[in-house]
Amino acid sequence: MMERRQFIKSGMGALATLAVGETILLTATEASAAVTEPLNYAPAADGTLQKVRPDYSKAKSVKSVCLNCSTVCGIEGFVQDGRVVKIRGNPLDPNLGSFMTCAKGQSGPTINSYPERLIYPMKRVGKRGEGLWKRITWDEAYAEMATRIQRCIDDGHPERVAIHQGRSRYESETSRFLNAIGSPVLLNHRALCSSNKRAANYVSLGETDWESIDAERCRYFLNFGANFFEAHQGGLHLVKRVTKARFDHGAKLVTFDVRLSNTAGRSDEWFQPFPGTEGAIALAMAHVILRDNLHDRDFMADFVQPGEKQLRTWLAGYTPAWAQKLSGVPARDIERLATEFAAAKPAVAAFTNRGTGAHYNGFNAERAVVMLNALVGAIGVPGGYCYGLDEKLSPGRYPAPQPAPPKVTIRTDLEDPPEWPLANRWQKMKVGQVVYDYLKQGRARLDVYISYTIVSPMTWPEGRATATEVLCDEKLIPFHACSDIIYSEMAHYADLILPDATYLERWGMDIRNNLELQHYVMLRQPMVPPPGETVSFPDVLFNIGKRLGPAQAKYFAFGTHEDYVREQCSKLPRTGPDGKQFASGFDYMKHYGVHVDTSQPKAYHVYRRQLDAAQLAGTRVDEATGCIMKADKPGGKERAIGLVVRGQPLRGFATPSRRFEIHAPEVAQVAATAGMKDDGMPAFHPVPGLERLPRDRFVLTSFKWNVHTQGRTASQKYLAEIVHDNPMWIHPSVAARIGAKSGDMVELTTYRPRSGTVGDQAFKASATGKEEVVGRARIRVFVTEGIHPKVLAVSNSLGWKFGGRSTQGRSGDRDALLDASGQGGVRPALSTAPATDDLRNGVWWDERRGGRGNGVNINAILPVNPGPLVGMQAWFDTVCSVRKV
Length: 885
Ligand SMILES: Nc1nc2c(c(=O)[nH]1)N[C@H]1C(S)=C(S)[C@@H](COP(=O)(O)OP(=O)(O)OC[C@H]3O[C@@H](n4cnc5c(=O)[nH]c(N)nc54)[C@H](O)[C@@H]3O)O[C@H]1N2
Ligand SMILES: Nc1nc2c(c(=O)[nH]1)N[C@H]1C(S)=C(S)[C@@H](COP(=O)(O)OP(=O)(O)OC[C@H]3O[C@@H](n4cnc5c(=O)[nH]c(N)nc54)[C@H](O)[C@@H]3O)O[C@H]1N2
Ligand code: SF4
Ligand SMILES: [Mo]
Known about the structure:
By secondary structure, the protein is of the alpha/beta class. The chain is globular and about 75 Å long. Bound molecules: ligand MGD (2 copies), iron/sulfur cluster (SF4) and molybdenum atom. One ligand MGD binds near residues 453, 485 and 490.
């Protein structure tokens, strides 16, 4: 032990002074390299931290894009003395349209100077997961990765190289890298996030994964499980417009959430459905709308499949009384809400988010909600359920440097698992949560696993069981390189750590749906240079690419990521909206941060657009369906490109029938290939295991805080100060039952899901058919009326084991944390600035100092549970029991 200590530096603070070739032991209690004092503080003469008042008038302004959540707001940063001292919104971002940001946006710069950032590339020297690292050079890191990847290519197995990304904004860059080497295995997080919602929009509308509600003009919002006042992929943008609509013309907001979220609390009416019954409520509303003839007869006749008559028959059994029995929401309220919604048509919107989607039956439930808009003719109309066109970084508008590698065409089970045939149907959504099980089962083999902005041991189901087990197993993952900004649980299980630049220190193009219904694009540019030896991940990939054989290297000859982005901007205008002239599109973007294409009208009534003569050339009309058919080439396969409506050749929807598809024959066909029976209608399927839930069993759900984003923000101390622990919300009736009050500790036990009801098998169904425990956790409770009596709710984002003192809730001088063996902390001589370190006394929630601690990671005991067809993780369906300890 003594000998070992002589060459091993210990603790994260030591990282800052680590020389190349030196070894460091990173223990579970400490995390990374000291950089500078916290934002807006400076060390005084006596060594204490003093708040300094920044003078923004002297600061340099840099436009960029926030990425503290997936809403990606346009921002403006103010830089002084090499530091970002302030962020505000960029009003040119059409979605944001103001100087406002949320609390997370404000705290973004704190991550730049987090005293425990990773700043050097490091190579593992002990056993994987032991935490023993050697500082290496980037040349060594690139060479090692290039050699391993080249071996896969030379062996004819490029698909053994995978990139696994969480909320990345670099799909264009990562795809280029994998296309160059010939691997299709770009794994992502969509099945954990929103794949049911995306699939539902695609099935119904045919051409978008995401609605852009024309909220400012909307009169009635029916919100099924979106918490857009706190979370939501675009929440800030929606809140602004919903609020305006309510003030301007008294728009009504109705929310279905099992929990009194901030959105529920700000709604005109809040209903708490039994989990997984949102689809039933939507179907019953549809029943009422048709029964009482409140629908838009013309729109349905012209544009909806199936016809009104068939739909009436199909909906007949889905009565409000039936939905009340399942959901607990009173039938009279379902009747009333349906009537109000239809009366306010067409400026109305029924929409969802994960409260509806993250269930076994989420795909159909989402479809049923989207259907409500079609029944009342609210699709694509002012104030209604709209959608934009061209919301991708298409190479036509944003060209990538040439030559670009051809798209890889091979498929593998890992990125395209055959059990979930709708996962990759419209866009590559994958079924990320089964990846580790597949590796375990030998269904796929990987030689090189590159992880980027993902912390599966924290944010994924069975994170600390299956994910960690596989990440530790060198037979299953022979080599793991992790790009991260802090020493996360992902980095801990890597062989190579690739320290990244933060979103305020790097380049990138960004785009998302625009609630103003026009195409736009944003530029992310470094506000300050990346610290230490951190390198932006796309540059890491490009630098590896340059070291591969000539067949691959030629795709990376263009230069750096900055050059890549410059090329992507090359077709953008050079004259600004205020008449300013620029030398290039890149310069335009650097100045404004945003470009909005105002040359096209707002995307209302997309489906009513007329087909022009060129589009109509060589077409024929199918008499039975009214579809305008065209072959892709002479004698080639015909497909519908439009619809004849009242004698006019219109574009219609981009579905196979060119109609809004409530009935989607494609879903039925695809389901059959996977051995499932499905009639192609958004029928209601109860969640297996949640029907007739025994009195002592509950449904465990989770939710997101307004000041935290997934596994991204716990290291931002100002946010961790606001929320650092996550007691479980329980209803007073549950509290009485188990004899607990707020603040008491309880033991929570979770159980594996049972088989499904539509011919499918739960992915990891209990083998015996009997109740099987997934895991147990101890957690404090918060007793509140604001939760459904059968639901227990715990937030995610917290309970880190690694990541530094802010995430781990550990305060103090790092040297004071040293244990008897000299480990667990940092020797004073090695720490850069312990006296000015805000984490020293600032982490007042440290349990050892009488604080409440850093919370519980609930994902450790949530089962991997992909729903049928799309494969989205049924996060909110877990059966559990609870007892006081
Ligand atoms: N129980 C429960 N779990 C959930 C959810 C839930 O509702 N309930 N929600 C799910 C959802 S919607 C999603 S999208 C997933 C997301 O979960 P993930 O896919 O894991 O994504 P993040 O949490 O954003 O990724 C966090 C990791 O990225 C690192 N990181 C942050 N910024 C950077 C950077 O600039 N560069 C690099 N290289 N790394 C960075 C962080 O340090 C951390 O290690 O979580 C899911 N997990
Ligand atoms: N502050 C913050 N903003 C974020 C994120 C974040 O982590 N934090 N993450 C971003 C990402 S990646 C995503 S995917 C979005 C997610 O955005 P949302 O989907 O809006 O947020 P969630 O918290 O995942 O779930 C929404 C709501 O569903 C409720 N819910 C849980 N179970 C049920 C149920 O059975 N039925 C009903 N009706 N409701 C239920 C929860 O109480 C919660 O309020 O947010 C994005 N924005
Ligand atoms: S909502 Fe907040 S955290 Fe998300 S992108 Fe906008 S400012 Fe950043
Ligand atoms: Mo997400």
